[in-house]
Amino acid sequence: AREAGTDLSSDSNLPFSTDIDGDTRPIQSNWDIGADEGAIGIYRSVAPGATSALQTDNSHSDTVTISNGTATFSSALADNIGVGDVLVYDSDGDNDLDSSDSLAFIQERTDSTHYILQTDNGSTPADLSTNDTWSIYRAYTSLANAENGTQNTSIPITFTGGNRDLVANNEQWNIACYANGTTADTTAVSIVGWTTGPNNFLKIYTPVNSNEVGVSQRHHGKWDEGKYRLEVENDHAIRNYEGFFRLEGIQMYETSGDITHDVFMLHLSFSAGDVETYITDNIFRGVHNNTNYWFQAHSTAYLSADATGNVYYYNNLFYDFSGTKTIFLEIYSSANLTNYIYNNTFYNCSDGGIAIRRVAQTAIVKNNIVQNCTTGYSGTFDSSSDYNISSDGTAPGSHSKTNATVLFMDVTHHDFHLSPNDSTAKDAGIDLSNDANLSFLTDIDGESRKDHTWDIGADETLNSTLKMRGHIKLRGVKIRN
Question: Is the pLDDT reported for residue 307 higher than 80?
Fold first, then answer.
């Protein structure tokens, strides 16, 4: 039904321009069929410092054709090209690329030669006959630039971006983060000035599926220098002030061990209004011997006590936040929020793992591992909290395990996948695939949890003798189940 209808705003018998919600139906693209007009998905890409073209027409020997929004390239594009990337093409036929030409964004990847495109406002681009002058770029060179709309300076055409009213424009924004070799994104990010809603949320993520990109840009449950990462020194990494927000598959690292003020790896601050925020499949990494907070997510009375809604944390890894005043996940709120904290792994902090401050909110913790922390769980947890593990005596729930040790693959090298020899977290969790409040099916690696009884923590071990990670070659090997 999406964009498959006809525009009835000038219909001679019954003209109208809104849907059942009162949202304006678009003038820049086809109407949706049915009573509801869905939000327009907008895609933008980020890679730290990546100003140069990712791929070009190869001295006019490679061509592109656009038909009904689908671009067909005569030669395969690089596997790291994907959603949000910008195609600049010679629409005026003068054999060069400048501000008088056109651009479109990759909305979806079909295969290495076919890509579905959208204009900067989400509409279908005009058809283009076979053309041999084009280049492809990342839209932005840092996540901070993507947030405020400062585009890649190598792109000669201006496009829409940054601090958008997604509700008024009926848009849902997707900012896809890509690696640029081993270059880190080092600019702190403040997400403010957007207007978001339940269907008009802002999503920051790493593309992973083949309909997004040819090669996954996401970590595999372990810190990876070759994937996108945000590394900030002596500053907040991400501050988000928008209620409808999703952060998925990002690596974040506070690089300084000498913090001169309170810093927050991820700072969630919600003012009055509804909240629906998801923090999923991320890796949060600290350094030893700092003296201030490293990871805090909170909705404080300093902004408003009127925020209501839900914040969801699942399949995240937090580690190495050791110092005199460190807490992995501190939820400090006078707002009426419900926090769902499911299947996360916390390792090595000197103060606390999961800390709940103030009683106006609800915190439900299930299937979490907290190890090597002075206080694993502190504060008041909802009575439905269960199936947690702590290395001290604090894990809440009648099925939880306290004073218990979990075996990880390689703590020394920061590999917190569960060891095949672990007997504490493996098969000890509760199946949350049909949880009434937060249901999901995969672990931090994107692997299915449904093969067998759920494990506790961010990682799900495979129900097999051999679990392969990374790049492995097998020759002359017989594997028998």
Answer: no
